[in-house]
Every structure is written in C-alpha cells, then in structure tokens.
Amino acid sequence: MANASIRSLRRWASSQIMPVYDRLPASEQVDESDLKHDMAVEIASMSGRSDSGSSGSSSDSNSSSSSSSGSFSGYNHPRHRSLLARLLHLIFAALYNLLTGLISLPIFLFRLLLLPFRLGRLTTLCCAPSSSFSTPHASHTPVGPGRWPALFARLEEFQLLVPSFLHPVVPGTPPKKLHPTAYLDGLRGVAAFLVVWHHASLLWFSWSIHHGYGSDKDAHLFIQLPIIRLAIAGPPQVSVFFVISGYALSYKPLRLSRQGRVAEAGEAIHSGVFRRHMRLFLMPLLVSFVAAILTYLDLYGGKDWKGVAISTRRPPQAGSLWGQLSHWARSFLTMANPLSASLSRGMFFMYDQNEWTLPVEFDMSMMLFLCQAALNRTRPRIRIMVMSCLALFALLNIHWQAFLFLAGMVICDLHFEFQGLGVATTRPADTNGMPVATALSAATLTAPTTMASAPSARARHRRYRWTICKCLCFVACLYLLSIPEDGHGAARTPGYVTLVRWLPAHHKSQRALDNWYMPLAAVGLVFTIDRTPALQRIFTHPFPQYLGYISYSMYLIHGTVIFTLGHWAARKAAAVTGTDTQWQYGLAVSVSAVVVWAVTIVLSDLATRTIDAKAVSFGRVIYERWSQPEKEEPDLLPRTR
C-alpha cells in the first residue's frame, strides 16, 4: 500500500512538471552515434576514451544516459535562443531533477528494506513454469524466452545493480560491430586487469616476489620468470597505457587530416583540448570523495597485518567530517590543477595514490594536442618524420612520458600510412598527370583476373612467415617489458645483465634504467599488435573487450576496494585458516581475491554505466553549448608578408 502511494506521488509530480518543461523552446538532440563513438574511444584509461577510434562496446551506457528525457545532458539547445529561455530551461530542469531525485530516494530505500521479503517470491518465480511470468508493471521488459528475462524485469529499479554482462539480450539482436582498432580496448582492459593484480599483490605478499628470477638466492619462484612476472608488474602496464592514449587521442585528427578535411581535424583537436580535463577528473572527483568518507569512518585497514610490501594505505584522518572534506578538497585541487608544472603532483594525493597517472595523462595530452595542431596541415610523411625525431629526443633526455605519447601518435600515423589513407595527396603525379595512387588503382583494375582470383602459394607462405616473425617480435617485446625494476635486482637478473650494461651513459648517470627499456618495449608491443591481425584477435575476444569497457572505472576503484574491504577480508580469512603453512596462507589470499574481484567488477560496471557515461556526455554537451557557430565571412585581420 505504501509502495503504491509513493509510486502515485512520483507519477503525479512528473505529470505536473513535465508539461511546463516540454513547452520550453525546442532543442536539438545530441547525436547518439557521436556519444557512442566518444565513449568507445576515449582512452584514459585508463586513459579514458577520446574522439579517436576504438570499439563500440559502450553503446549500452551511452544509450541509457542519452535517453533520459529530463536529464541535463540530453539537450543541445539552439545557439540563437534568447537568454531568458535558456535561464528558464535550466531552472525547470534543475527543479525537475531535484524533485524526482528527492521522491526516488525514499522509494529506493523503502524497496531496499522490502527486498529480503521479495527474495522468497522471486525464488518461487524462478521455480515456476516460464509461461506463468507476466510483467504488466515492469519498467523494462526484455523480450526473450526463459525465466531470467522475466525475473530481470521484475527487479525494476534494482536492474541498475545487475552487471551489464548479465543483462538479457533480445533474440535476433545483431552482434555489435567492432571498430578497426577495437584491439586497443582489449589491450587496455588486460593492462588494467594486471594493474589490479599488481596492487593486490602488495597487500598479500612481500617485495621479494617482485624481484627478478635468480637475482637473489631465494628468488626462484615461478611468478618471477620473464613474461610470467607481468601478471603482478605495474610499471609495464602504465607504459602500455600511455602508448594507447597517444594512439587513441590521435586517431580522429590524423584520419581527418589525411582525408583532406583539415578544418574538421582542427575542430576535433579543439574539442579534445576543451573536454580532456573534465573527462579525466570528473569521475576521480566522485570516487575520491567516497574514499574521504571511508577515511573519516576509519574503514581503511592497517591493523595486525605485517610482512607484506604495503600493509596499508590509510589517508590522513581528520577529527571532524568538515576537516576531512576540507583536506580532501585541497588535495584533489592540487592533483587536478591544470596550471601546475609538476608531473609528480599526483604522487601526493593520499586518497588514492594510484591516480598519480592522471596529471601525467592530462599534461601529455595537452602536449600531444599542440603537436597535432602544429602539424595538422603538413604532409603525412613529413609529420611522421618530425614526430619521430621529437619522440627520440624525449627518450634520450629521459622524458619517458612524452616519448610514449608521441610514439603512440607516430604508430597511429603509420597505421594510416600502411593503409594508404591520404596517399594520393602525398605522392607526385606520374608522367601522364595522373596521381600515382590513381594509376595503381587503374593498373589493378586492368590486371588479368587470373592473378587476382586467389593469392598464390608463395604469397600465402610469405604472409605466414611474416606473421611468425611478428609473433616472435611480440614475445621479444614481452620479454623486454618484463625487465625487473632497478630497485628489484635488474642488474643481477640472468638474461637482463647484458641489457643493463648496454644502457646509455646519460640514463646510467641518472639511474633511469626503468625509463629506457620499458618505454621501448611498450612502443614495440603496440606497434607489433597493430600490424598483426592474428594477435589482434586475442584482444578482440569478448572478455578483453569487457575489461576494456570497464577499465577506467576499474583503475580508479580497485585501490579503495583493496585497502578497505580486501584488507578486512584477508585478515579475517587468515584468522580462520591460519598462516602457519603456505597452503593456509594461500587459502586466505584466495578468499580475499574472490571478495576483491567480485566487488571491483560490480562497482566498476555500475560506475561505467552511470558516472563514466555521464562524464562523457556532459563534456560533449558543454562543449556544444558553449561553442559559437562558424561564420563564412572575409578575413578582416591584416596579414603580414
């Protein structure tokens, strides 16, 4: 009875507000395909996703975020509308969202209290014949046979808590078409997956597990072997993140520039610069706020847990809630300061030290956008040469972050170069005045059909040999990426001793071993995968694609989960199983791992479908609203000769 009354009140409020809201001046809808594209390809990461290309795995989140009729992000109003109409729209939109939010909160809490009593009914429905299901009042009724779609529909507002991979699929729905660079999503997802294992290993094991195999007399564990050790290594994954970010942020501007659409390429660069800060820091703002509340409630672990690499990561605890939030606000503003010249400002953000990469992402993104704007009109091969020299200069001077981003842009440009995109504008005409690309196409069309009918055996063998060589190069990059860090015995690890001796003199004097081989290996790894379709299939599998879909949220959430709930689960499990033998301790770690991964996956999926999707659409809408229309008028500015 009470539930029905609250539902009626919510419907009445909506009916009273919406007619006034709908009578406001008409608006243009944001292109949903653009939102899907932006959500799919902005890679930050970790890198977030940008206007560059990547998979379309985020269409569910964007469609849900763009379909809410009363949301702020769903409207792109005409620029010629009066200021009074804009003000009225914002006021009514704020009132509507506030009223519906206040009414929905008690409904959710009330139904959450009734959920244990409803579980018995839902269990009965699961055991009943599928023909007995009827969902007349369901807000979302998936079409399809079976008990789970009907049961999912009966969950109503609790559908939001169900991970996206458990949502029923409508029969006959065509599979999502992957973008040509969808493998970048999978590679980013795998890297984020291994980053979680790295930070969890710091809570479960000592630093000795991260030493190179054979570097000490006790360093002979299977997990310490080359390539195998990447499962718990963090710095190599960060290097891969940065290369992917440089590639992804360059995809759309370079593609448009090579197609001769220079003005559109400039618009893509402008949009990326405007939205980058919001894209990177909106979601960390909310996640770190939750971490501040957990800190005030003293929910971070730090008791009775010794012998591990990092026993706790407790942010500073204040004596009052206001003091805690004030400290969090100052710390976050220091990290998110776009005018700071320090790349290491994220190291001092105690509410999640894993977010030290975000300021680096932002600063290097701005540098990359500047390079794109400077070389937007240059010929592609000139641009590749200039960017390669600039990347090499950065590497030799130990600007390894800049090298990774610049190298990602070079790989993206080479990707289009090998595809032949824009080749007609970069090659001179032949003796007959016909461009070389056109002449080659005409020659191909006039070639005998017997030669083009099927590849010869020699061509197939040549392709197989190249594929094998690329796979060997992939393994070599993994081996080089597995080099232990300088503080973990790299100079004493068999197989890497010679590589340490070959280190450039400048890097030796600065003790920058980690900033030479790892960046080179990360660039070689991404370039090899980009040129090898057989390797790309590994990362276009649904599981890596799903990890890529939730990678940014997983990167931001996992640290708080590990050192709060994961710390508590490990201590409680160890108290039950004991720690006298390796098997007992291993069982306790397994229990903690199950808890950490279950909570991390569910929260990351939820955050991706809600916070992350809104952050992408919010930045896009703000940019569209604040942009002025382009006018085709003669240039009145004086020009110098």
Automatic annotation (TrEMBL):
Keyword Disulfide bond included in the entry's annotation: no
Q: Report TM segments.
A: 87-114, 227-249, 280-297, 356-375, 387-416, 436-454, 466-483, 516-534, 546-570, 582-604
Q: Where is this region: Disordered?
A: 46-74
Q: Does the keyword Transmembrane helix apply?
A: yes
Q: Name a Pfam family for this protein.
A: Acyl_transf_3
Give the Acyltransferase domain ranges: 182-599
Sorted alphabetically, the keyword list is: Membrane, Transmembrane, Transmembrane helix
- The name of this protein is Acyltransferase 3 domain-containing protein
